[in-house]
Amino acid sequence: MLSVTDLQKTYPSGDEALKGVSIDVTGSETVAMIGPSGAGKSTFIRCVNRLTEPSGGSVELDGVEVTALSSDDLREARRDMGMIFQEYNLVERLTVMENVLSGRLGYVSTWQAFRRNFPPEDVERAYEVLDRVGLADHENNRADELSGGQRQRVGIARAILQRPKILLVDEPTSSLDPETSKAVMDLLTEIAAEDDIPVLINIHEVDLAQEYAERIVGLRDGELVFEGTPDDLDETA
Ligand code: ADP
Ligand code: ADP
User: Fold this and answer.
1) 53, 74, 109, 162: which to mutate for ligand 2, most atoms within 8 A of CB?
2) Does the keyword section mention Hydrolase (predicted)?
3) 89 and which of 33, 74, 85, 153 could share a cystine (Cβ 3.0–4.6 Å)?
4) For the chain (length 237 residues), average pLDDT per consecutive 10?
5) DSSP label at residue 142
6) Which atom from ligand 1 is nearest to the alpha carbon of 52?
7) Closest ligand 1 atom to the C-alpha of 42?
8) pTM for the full model?
C-alpha cells in the first residue's frame, strides 16, 4: 500500500506545485489523478519516488518511509516503484531488450556501464515481460525504430521487470492517438490486474480515467479538490 501524507513541493522558482496532498493507494486498485495542466500531477508522481525532492510531507510504501531514506536505500526502494513516463524515456540507440533491462538498475543513465553484467535470470525475465507486452519479436530493434505505441509497451515491460509493488504512471498516452491510447491502457490495466499491482496514474483525459480507474482524485493548483468513483465524477460534472 502507498500512503502519501501532506505532500508539499515548492520549486526554487517559488512555484507552490503541491500544497499538502494526501492520498492512499491500496490493494490492487487503479487510482487516476486528473486535473488541468499545471495542477501538480507530474510533480506529485515525481515526488513519490523522489525523482523530485518533496519540500514536506511523507511517502510510505508497504511500511517503508520513502521520504526518510538515504540515497543508497532510495535506489533500492525505487526498484519497488515501476515508473512509466509520458515520453517513454527510452534510450534511443539501445535495443528493446537493452532498454527493458536498463530498468534493472533503476537509472537509465548508468545502464551502459553495467550492460555486460546481467545475470541470465534477469535476461530470462526480460524475455518474459517482452512477451507479455507483445514485443517478443522486437527484442533486437533499436528504440528509435519503434512506433509510439510500441515504445510505451517497452516502457511497460521495463516497469514490470522487477515485480514492483506499485506502478507510477505519468501521462502514458499523451503522445499517442486515441486508438493506441486505449490499447496501451488496456494492456497496462490488464497486467496490473493479473499481477495484483496497484497503479497510480496521471491522466488528463477524463474519459480514459473514468473507463480504466476504480477511483479518481482531482488536483487543482496543488490541492486535492475531488476524490471519488468514476460515477461520482459524472454527478459532480
Ligand atoms: P501537471 O503535471 O498537473 O501539469 P506540474 O506538476 O507539471 O503539473 O506543474 C505544477 C506547477 O509546478 C506548475 O505551476 C509548473 O509550472 C510548476 N513546475 C513544474 N516543474 C517545475 C520545475 N522543474 N521548476 C519550477 N516549477 C515547476
Ligand atoms: P533527472 O531527474 O534530473 O533527469 P535522474 O538521474 O533522476 O535525473 O534520472 C535520469 C533519467 O532516468 C531521467 O530521465 C529519469 O526520468 C530516469 N529515471 C530515473 N529514475 C528512474 C526509474 N526508477 N525508472 C526509470 N527511469 C528512471
Assistant:
1) 109
2) no
3) 85
4) 97 97 94 96 96 97 96 89 87 87 58 60 90 94 94 95 95 93 96 96 94 97 96 80
5) B
6) 23
7) 2
8) 0.87
